[in-house]
């Protein structure tokens, strides 16, 4: 019984992957049909496996917030350094207080920088889209048949090609 359930689950999973793969390939072919110099010369060589594109940590509000706080802390450090240079000649007590603030803000920038790096390493964002590699032959602008090796980015719903990059 358990084997049957696992078999059915595996089949469903493979079917969903195959259907995404099939949709992606169809989108790429339709895209090429409207963007090639000579669509009739198109000859598919191979498609890579479809792969998920996730949102990067640097594209999140949390990143923006930490980055802004880090910039503010660095600006405070710079401002206090200027103040320290002025106080060094006028008041030893005020100089010591400013030096303590500088060390605190420098510690803040270190902590914020570590938080940003740590979050970047651990972050796995929502699905942003899909990417698929495709090799094909087609005529270029001069009429010569050329082998193209391209990467196609697709939207998250697999309804449109967002961008294409030809590596030739």
Short note summarizing the structure:
The chain has 168 residues and is an alpha+beta fold. The protein is built from three helices and five strands. The chain has helices at residues 2-35, 61-87, 92-122; strands at residues 43-47, 51-54, 127-139, 145-155, 161-166.
How would you portray this structure in words?
The longest helix has 34 residues, at 2-35. Strands 1, 2, 3, 4 and 5 form a five-stranded antiparallel β-sheet that branches. This protein has two domains: 23-55 and 126-166; 57-122, Helix Hairpins (Orthogonal Bundle). It is built from three helices and five strands. Helix 2 (61-87) runs antiparallel to helix 3 (92-122). The radius of gyration is 27 Å and the shape is elongated. It has 168 residues and is of the alpha+beta class. The chain is 55% helix and 23% strand. Strand 3 (127-139) and strand 4 (145-155) form a beta hairpin.
Topology summary:
Elements: H1 2-35, E1 43-47, E2 51-54, H2 61-87, H3 92-122, E3 127-139, E4 145-155, E5 161-166
Antiparallel strand pairs: 1-3, 2-3, 3-4, 4-5
Helix pairs in contact: 2-3
């Amino acid at each position: 019984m358990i084997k049957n359930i696992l078999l059915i689950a595996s089949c469903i999973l493979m079917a969903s992957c195959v259907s995404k793969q099939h949709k992606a390939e169809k989108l790429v072919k339709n895209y090429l049909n409207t963007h090639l110099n000579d669509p009739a010369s198109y000859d598919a060589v191979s498609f890579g496996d479809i792969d998920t594109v996730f949102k990067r940590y640097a594209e999140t509000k949390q990143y923006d917030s930490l980055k802004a706080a880090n910039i503010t802390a660095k600006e405070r450090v710079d401002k206090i350094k200027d103040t320290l240079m002025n106080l060094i000649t006028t008041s030893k007590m005020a100089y010591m207080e400013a030096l303590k603030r500088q060390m605190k803000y420098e510690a803040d920038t270190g902590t914020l920088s570590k938080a940003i790096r740590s979050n970047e390493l651990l972050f796995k964002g929502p699905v942003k889209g899909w990417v698929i590699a495709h090799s094909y032959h087609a005529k270029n602008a001069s009429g010569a048949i050329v082998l193209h090796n391209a990467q196609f980015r697709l939207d998250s719903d697999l309804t449109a090609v967002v961008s294409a990059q030809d590596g030739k």
